[in-house]
Amino acid sequence: MDRGLLFVVTMVMGCLAPGVSGNGHLTFANNTKVNITRTGCGLKKLCVETPEQCDPTGKTSCLFASIVTTAPSPPNGVDLLVELRGDSSGYIALGLTANETEGTSMVFICAQNSSVSFFFRSAQRNNLNNTISLTQRIVKNITSSVNGTVIQCEFNVPAVNATTRTSHITFVTFLAVGNVTNGMGIGDINIRLTSKLLNLAQPNSNVATTTAPTTAGSSALTSQAVLVLLSVLTYHLS
């Protein structure tokens, strides 16, 4: 059944414990359909996905996120424009962290359930034990589309900073899925992809670079050919 229910949400996330129902001060209104594509990846927006190079508009499974940043404004950081798409009967999530092996991650969750179709949560992940706790963070202009198990959402996160140990906008990103419990509770997070440290302001920071083929071998062969030619000419002239 097509449940392409569309919402625009402007919210300040309420602080809810996992498994506790509540609407988190959500305000909903109808909007046009979300249409997330790979257009601009590596040029205008930073993209991460699994499987690699999967098509978020296709019929196959594709867990995909893109990020566009404003110009850095120290000490306030940057605003993020995020697109997130994935297949889940519970939730999909994007995480940002300065260090994946310690500290915490910011997590942004787009979810669905049978009663309200779509809802959004911001959370914090403990990087040491992978536990999730819901947090209070301002997230703006949320747009969503739910069609069966396909969840798509767009949202803005203002004033994002990494820790003082890194540049303001350099993060490890991860993509994850999970279950919804007790209405709108967030179940265990299952990370499907973790990136290297990425500069969110550089759309091509995770695009593999290729090195030009070495010419050392061809130069050596050319030199040998010249020597052989000179030997032949010397033989005939002597």
Automatic annotation (TrEMBL):
PROSITE patterns membership: PROKAR_LIPOPROTEIN
Signal peptide: 1-22
InterPro entries per UniProt: FRRS1L
UniProt entry tagged with the keyword Signal: yes
Keyword Magnesium: no
Biological processes, Gene Ontology terms: regulation of glutamate receptor signaling pathway; regulation of postsynaptic membrane neurotransmitter receptor levels
UniProt keyword list: Signal
Record-given protein name: Ferric-chelate reductase 1
Protein's organism: Coregonus suidteri
